[in-house]
Design brief:
The chain is α+β, with helices and mostly antiparallel strands. About 30% of the residues lie in helices and about 25% in strands. It has one domain (about 10-105). The chain has helices at about 55-65, 70-85, 95-105, and strands spanning about 10, 15-25, 30-35, 40-45, 50. Strands 4-3-2-1-5 form a 5-stranded antiparallel beta sheet, with no helix packed on it. A hairpin with a 6-residue loop joins β3 (about 30-35) and β4.
Length: about 100
């Protein structure tokens, strides 16, 4: 489990709701997370997933956990994929490789 501290964004894996951490407390062998907001809530640490700061990592985490993804996130992901340049890998040709090595000398 990653260290979860005050201010971290977390996702409750059971309810698919995001929260901001206020306090993490341990009582005996039970750790709970209290959240900020209008109504403070308490969640067992086993239900909590820390949300990465990277939007891409957060997007993928939501996909894996089958959380709701809004249209903005979906469009941003699609645009990022379109910007990628595809790489073609050619079959290794030892003769061409030898020529390339000789040209560099």
């Amino acid at each position: 489990m990653e260290n979860i501290i005050k201010g971290d964004k977390v996702l409750n894996s059971k309810t698919n709701v995001e929260y901001v951490v206020d306090i993490v407390e341990t009582h005996g062998d039970v750790t709970v997370v209290f959240t900020e907001g209008h109504q403070t809530t308490c969640h067992p640490i086993s239900d909590i997933i820390k949300i990465p700061k990277s939007w891409l990592a957060n997007f993928l985490l939501k996909k894996i956990n089958k959380s709701v993804i809004d249209n903005f996130e979906e469009k941003k992901f699609d645009e990022s994929l379109r910007k990628l340049e595809l790489v073609k890998i050619k079959k290794f040709d030892p003769i061409q490789f030898e020529k390339m090595i000789k040209e560099q000398d």
